[in-house]
Design a protein that fits this description.
2 domains, alpha/beta, binds adenosine-5'-diphosphate, binds magnesium ion, Rossmann fold, ABC transporter transmembrane region fold, about 575 residues, about 10% strand
Length: about 575
């Protein structure tokens, strides 16, 4: 994170430098008006004689106003430009990081959390950079330039005495800000909890309605929301304390200046004009000192956000080397699994136990097994979505860990179980990140997946937008859209993970026939709980609790009269009943 942020900041060094220069100039010119007004006051003692000099001073004042305006415009523009640019670059980097993080790390991040990284944390950092660049710099310049003007232009002693309350206040602020900080931390925690809750509740809205849980959800929301309000209230109370402290501070400054300054005027140490100018200089401090607590609390917020982002940025990435991946490769698709055992990081029991398996190019493997038996996990490992122990999976005799990730995933077409569709058009969903695909090819693949007729009936055909903002598809339709991706793919290995479950028997058989044609020269894995999907496979395995408990062909497994035979009997009995 440190590296990323400093790289981004370096990119904008010139804009930052210019902003600092313009702010410096602005503050420098701001010390002129009090001085000029002071001069005018002194000249007013003899208006007749000083008429011309007074007019000169007025022109001088107007000139300074024009210069201030000219300096302010570029500075104001830069104020927004730099932090926004840094924010944009940081968002790009964060999204890239999410795309690259290993699945093992990614699964610990909740959806709501992810949103708050993008919406809240990055914006906290932007706001701090904004405050630091525009207000922080102004604070530093004001303290240096205005104090210098007061000391050299008016009186050193008066300056020191008058600015005493400011120094005391700064120490007070540092104390109070600790309270602000702790209450803010609480408020941020409740904010994340609330946004996660909203995310989950909207995801689960159907289930909630079906189980009439709306009131329970609402009650919980109200409770969380109240907690957030209380935490925010505490932040406000502490902030108010800060601003009161500041008001008292400046009251004291003006009071001291009035008492001690008028004494100096009466003594003749300073002129009335100096005294007027001095009060004008005090005014220059009001803004910057008021901003100080804001900068400090922004710093604290940004620090927390920085730490959260730093945790994300330090998560391990998948190793993808685009340069070496693009080379021609000799991927054929002969898969051999040797004594593979696997467990997800936080699980206690093994998910896969001593799996041994060999699938040759051109062959089809059928996998059947109860839910949770490890079928999808085995496929996740074939795609190296999770770390594979060395030497346990070989493709064309090569350890899977030695095959570049992009090459591996390019050659394996994995039709996943979750039927996830992006909320874009059907066309984009079928093409899925591929370039240079003709509409004709998409049409062909949808025909093969038996979804063509359904799409034709839609008003916008293949351009129909689906998902949250568009048409909702049935489970079976979604499955067929997802299946049609396989027919566009030129990969050497095709995996169907339980992707026929929502199809009716007739459609299923037609899709299967097309799949058979597609995978004639490819390695194919079909995961299904229907015997009819896998009976023609060259090899079938039965998974149970992460173990291969039976393997063979349809005929040999039936002869064994084991678990496969039981599945078969159950399913034929069911279809008999359906026929009767
Ligand atoms: N990402 C994951 N993290 C932890 N455990 C998981 C994860 N995915 C699956 N599991 C667990 O691994 C087991 C096998 O799951 P899975 O391979 O999805 O089974 P199947 O596809 O056969 O239904 C289950 O007990 C499941 O709870
Ligand atoms: Mg599964």
């Amino acid at each position: 994170m440190k590296k990323i942020l400093s790289k981004i900041i370096k990119k904008y060094w010139f804009a930052i430098l210019m902003q600092i220069i313009f702010i410096g100039l602005n503050i420098y010119f701001l010390t002129y008006p009090p001085k000029i007004i002071g001069n005018i006051v002194d000249l007013l003692y003899n208006v007749e004689e000083n008429r011309n000099a007074i007019m000169m001073q007025i022109w001088y004042l107007l000139g300074i106003c024009v210069v201030l305006l000219a300096v302010r415009m570029p500075w104001r523009w830069l104020t927004g430009y730099t932090p926004r640019s840094i924010e944009r670059d940081l968002k790009d980097k964060l999204f890239e990081q999410f795309m690259r993080i290993k699945m093992t790390s990614l699964q610990n991040i909740k959806n709501g959390e992810l949103m708050s990284y993008f919406v809240k944390d990055i914006s906290e950092i932007r706001q701090f950079i904004y405050r630091l660049l525009s207000y922080g710099t102004r604070f530093v310049f004001t303290v240096i330039i205005a104090t210098y003007a007061m000391m050299s232009g008016v009186n050193v002693k008066l300056t020191l005495v008058t600015l005493c309350p400011i120094i005391v206040t700064i120490f007070l602020i540092i104390k109070i800000k600790e309270y602000v900080e702790s209450s803010f931390r609480k408020s941020q925690k409740y904010f994340t909890e609330l946004s996660e809750y909203v995310q989950e509740s909207t995801d689960a809205i159907r289930t909630t309605k079906a189980y009439t849980g709306e009131m329970n959800q609402l009650k919980e929301f109200i409770r969380k929301n109240r907690k957030l309000r209380e935490a925010n209230n505490a932040v406000d109370v502490h902030s108010t304390l800060l601003s009161t402290c500041l008001n008292i501070c400046f009251g004291l400054c003006y009071g001291i200046s009035l008492l001690y300054g008028s004494k100096l005027v009466l003594e003749g140490t300073i002129t009335t004009g100096d005294f007027v100018a001095f009060n004008g200089y005090i005014g220059l401090f009001v803004g910057p000192v008021t901003w100080l607590p804001g900068i400090i609390s922004r710093y604290k917020r940004a620090k927390l956000s920085y730490q959260r982002l730093d945790n994300v940025f330090s998560l391990e990435r998948e190793k993808i080397n685009v340069k070496t991946e693009d080379k021609e490769d000799d991927f054929k698709g002969n898969i051999e699994i040797k004594d593979l055992s696997f467990n997800y990081p936080e699980n206690i029991e093994m998910v896969l136990n001593h799996i041994n398996l060999k699938i040759n190019k051109g062959e089809t493997l059928g996998i059947i097994g109860t839910i949770g038996s490890g079928k999808t996990t085995l496929m996740n490992l074939l795609l190296r979505l999770y770390p594979v122990p060395n030497g346990k999976i070989q493709i064309d005799g090569k350890d899977i860990n030695d095959i570049p990730l992009l090459t591996l995933r390019k050659h394996i077409c994995y039709i996943t179980q979750d039927n996830f569709l992006f909320s874009t058009s059907l066309k984009e969903n079928i093409k899925l990140f591929k370039e240079g695909i003709e509409d004709e090819q998409i049409k062909e693949s949808t025909k093969n997946a038996m979804i063509y007729d359904d799409i034709e009936k839609m008003q916008n055909g293949i351009e129909t937008i689906i998902g949250e903002r568009g048409v909702d598809l049935s489970g079976g339709q979604k499955q067929r859209v997802v299946i049609s991706r396989a027919f566009l793919n030129k990969s050497k290995v095709v995996i169907f993970d339980d992707t026929f479950s929502a199809l009716d028997n007739r459609t299923e058989q037609m899709v299967l026939n097309n799949v058979k044609k597609l995978v004639k020269d490819k390695t194919c894995i079909i995961i299904s709980n229907r015997i009819s999907d896998i009976r023609d496979a060259d090899q079938i395995i039965v998974l149970d609790g992460g173990n291969i408990i039976e393997s063979g062909t349809h005929e040999s497994l039936l002869k064994e009269q084991g678990r496969y035979y039981n599945f078969y009997k159950e399913q034929t009995a069911k279809s008999q009943m359906a026929l009767n």
